[in-house]
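Appendix B. One record, verbatim.
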Amino acid sequence: QVQLVESGGGLVQAGGSLRLSCAASGRAFNSYVMAWFRQAPGKEREFVAIINWNGGRTYAADSLKGRFTISRDNAKNTVYLQMNSLKPEDTAVYYCAARTAYSITVYEGEYEYWGQGTQVTVSS
């Protein structure tokens, strides 16, 4: 079983920045595709960003490009989400997800492992 633990969420003012971290258990982290999703109150979970096994390929949701950046450090079994120029509409619970296949996907149903989520609140 793979365990994922998110951290780094909190309360920030609009225009501020946060860096989320996702620490993974196991020694096969460097073979996992990793992604971030988020869920705002009253809304369905949506895709945020994805990164392949070695960090050579990354994709972010069109509405978030230029503000959010995903990265990973395989030596530390950790994936990050750098969030800049935060807006009130970014308020949500952010989830880390992993899958053991080499192919990447934005569909949450195809991810095998999930963290518990971390709350991000952006004040106006």
